[in-house]
Amino acid sequence: EIRRLGFIGLGAMGKPMLSHLANKLPPQSKIWAFDVVDELVDGMCAQFPNKVYKASSAKDIADQADVVITMVPEGEHVRSVYLDPQQGICSSDISGKLLIDCSTIDTSTSLAVKEHIAANFPTASFYDAPVSGGVIGAIKGTIAFFLGCAESDPNLERLTYLAGLMGKEIIPCGGPSFGLAAKLSNNYLSGIIAIACSEAMDMGMRSGLDPRVLARVYAAGTAQNTICDKFNPVPHVYPEAPSSGGYKQGFKVQLMRKDFALALDMAKRVGSRNVLGEAGLATYDGASKDERCRDLDSRVVYRYLGGDED
Ligand code: NAD
């Protein structure tokens, strides 16, 4: 049973994830929350009085809680949240505690944090547990968790219980940092598909085809995939796709750029040949800097590549 939980990083993903925990953990359990943006913490405390309590630093969280979840943007933030000598989680005595990082970061930073913890607090456990499914999935409680552990891990039951309160599918990926490797591999694939779908749709439409006919052809043919079906980059092919709402809801193009760059670093390190990688990174990098695309759903690459939106 988890009585004392800590949560760090109350952004677009962290806030709805914490809300699920506050709603679903048993009444006797308490949650301490921390974010560098004070108002985000105050907001959660006001929403869940007698359940969510304000902490003053990551160290304070680790002092109070037995289980800590972190959800911050990038590797540098994970490093400072865990390793800052005065304010970090590891400046507290975290012996016996369970630490779960859900941020999407590079595998090397994650392994460095894990090694630091193993060396200094042999009874503490650290896991990478990145998520997929976006902000809407986090709100609905349908995100997937990719756990950096084996099926036989002694903490799998507790990890699965907690992840199950925030999401649906929970996949132990094999070992430390494998959750992140799986997540980056997934986002590389889905990012490439979005570009390929944008190009193929544009080519077909310029040949005179109706975009809805093209989408039906892919769905019936060998090109069938979720991006073309439910996240089609061309507006009004699928009414609930971000593209149909002006690319406003969804997975920000800058986040796809970040994940893509992380995936390519990983490819380089492990020696896989990703011939589409450089083109993909250049596309997401360009779209991230383009003011017609910045801050919009990553499928806005269709606009970036010059697709017709009428
Ligand atoms: P976000 O920028 O909305 O939220 C991050 C939060 O972390 C912010 O509130 C920020 O103030 C806080 N933070 C930063 N540094 C901190 C520190 N040192 N101490 C405490 N708090 C700190 O980002 P997000 O969209 O919630 O994404 C978080 C992570 O989840 C990222 O790694 C992202 O790639 C990943 N992710 C995002 C989505 C998505 O659709 N947004 C989907 C899956 C995974």
Highlighted features:
310 residues; alpha/beta; Rossmann fold; N-(1-d-carboxylethyl)-l-norvaline Dehydrogenase, domain 2; 6-stranded parallel β-sheet; 3-stranded mixed β-sheet; 9 strands; 12% strand; globular; binds nicotinamide-adenine-dinucleotide; NAD binding; oxidoreductase; HIBADH-like_NADP-bd; 6PGDH_NADP-bd; 3-hydroxyisobutyrate dehydrogenase activity
By secondary-structure content and strand pairing, the structural class works out as alpha/beta
- Mean of residue pLDDT? 97
CATH class bucket of the largest domain? Alpha Beta
Strand percentage, roughly? 5-15%
Gap between N and C termini: 55 Å
Q: What composes the largest sheet?
A: 6 strands, parallel
CATH level 4 superfamily of the largest domain? NAD(P)-binding Rossmann-like Domain
Q: Judging from the principal axes of the Cα atoms, what is the shape? A: globular
Briefly note the CATH topology name of the largest domain: Rossmann fold
InterPro entries: 6-PGluconate_DH-like_C_sf, 6PGD_dom2, 6PGDH_NADP-bd, HIBADH-like_NADP-bd, HIBADH-related, NAD(P)-bd_dom_sf
Catalytic activity: 3-hydroxy-2-methylpropanoate + NAD(+) = 2-methyl-3-oxopropanoate + NADH + H(+)
Family: Belongs to the HIBADH-related family. 3-hydroxyisobutyrate dehydrogenase subfamily.
Pfam family, one: NAD_binding_2
Please give a structural write-up.
- The chain is α/β, with parallel strands linked by helices and 310 residues long.
- The protein folds into two domains: 172 residues, NAD(P)-binding Rossmann-like Domain (Rossmann fold), CATH 3.40.50.720; 124 residues, N-(1-d-carboxylethyl)-l-norvaline Dehydrogenase, domain 2, CATH 1.10.1040.10.
- The protein has 13 helices and nine strands.
- Strands 3-2-1-4-5-6 form a six-stranded parallel sheet, with helices on both faces.
- Strand 1, helix 1 and strand 2 form a beta-alpha-beta unit.
- The longest helix is centred in the middle third of the chain and has 29 residues.
- The chain binds nicotinamide-adenine-dinucleotide.
- Nicotinamide-adenine-dinucleotide binds next to helix 4, strand 7 and helix 6.
- The site of nicotinamide-adenine-dinucleotide (NAD) has 27 residues, from helix 4, strand 7 and helix 6.
